[in-house]
Amino acid sequence: MYNDMTYTGNVVTARAGSSSGRVRFVSDTKWGAKIIGTGTEAHWTNNGNFVDVSGFDISGPGRLGILNYASNTLIEGNHVHDLKVGGGCNGSGGAGIVDANYNAADADIIGNVVHDIGVPGKCNGVQGIYHSNLRGKIMNNIVYRVSAWGIHLWHAANNVVIANNTVFNNGSSNMGGGIEAGSGDSPGGIILNNTSIINNIVYNNPGASIAQYCYTGASCIGSSNLTANNLVYGNGRGISLRVGSATGTVTADPKFINYQSNGSGNYRLQSGSPAIDKALTKAAPAYDIDSVARPFGGAIDIGAYESF
Fold first, then answer.
1. Domain range for 220
2. Which of 249, 250, 169 is nearest to 203 (CA)?
3. Is residue 302 part of a domain?
4. For residue 282, is it within any domain?
5. pLDDT tens-place string over residues 190-217
6. What total of structural domains would you count in the chain?
7. C-beta neighbour count of 289 within 10 angstroms
8. 45 pLDDT band (50/70/90 cuts)?
9. 10-34, pLDDT tens digit by residue?
10. How far apart are the C-alpha atoms of 230 and 207, rounded to whole Å?
11. Is residue 116 classed as helix, strand or coil in its secondary structure?
12. Does the residue 85 lie in any domain?
């Protein structure tokens, strides 16, 4: 357990757990333990399998908030914000939370708030949540004001679930957007398949909303992916898939209680929201970002909050 205080410096965790005995790094109260990193690289690096990192507030000058190299991990309920990407916009990129080991698997990123990662529209390689390995669940996160993509799959991403996230105001008119899925670069030869992008609110991103991407001339998208029941509204461009088509898309204002583009609003849903009871049940998280059981009402709501 970490006490409710401010820790200056970077954290590196290497201890591994097991399937029957996980290692847990937990803030005493949610966001009470504050990690203010130093330098230009990662502010929390995890190398241990079967590890949870839960409830921390992480910020600093570097390009990476939480850098995970391990398998069977859970990064949950953290507040990762105001990364300055002090090393500059270069090929190393950056992210609020990143699963970076192409040989790892089953890394879950659930219920985090990630925002102000670099400067929107400044660096194409800086993402909010960046997932690069096999399987994993990216659920119930709120992501906004990121340099490029709110949520990005690449490298060895495959068989991933991206569900019930609320993603807004990321990128610029010519860079990034809400959610992008693809594979490329090292390790090579990966086809993104059996991946679900469902039940997400993707709102007010100046560029793209949801997109699949491969390098020119490459075929990196399989035929068994699912893009369904997302609310997509107010973005610069609609859903763009290389293979298949989106189903059940809601194209209407989500009617947040109080939308503010800088993150100071209330992103729960008003009673008349078109996102209420419109989500797919299959692969949806059992709880929302506030640990409210789904469904709370007749069916599951789209987005990070289960409101009605």
1. 6-269
2. 169
3. no
4. no
5. 999 999 999 999 999 999 999 999 999 9
6. 1
7. 24
8. very high
9. 999 999 999 999 999 999 999 999 9
10. 17
11. strand
12. yes
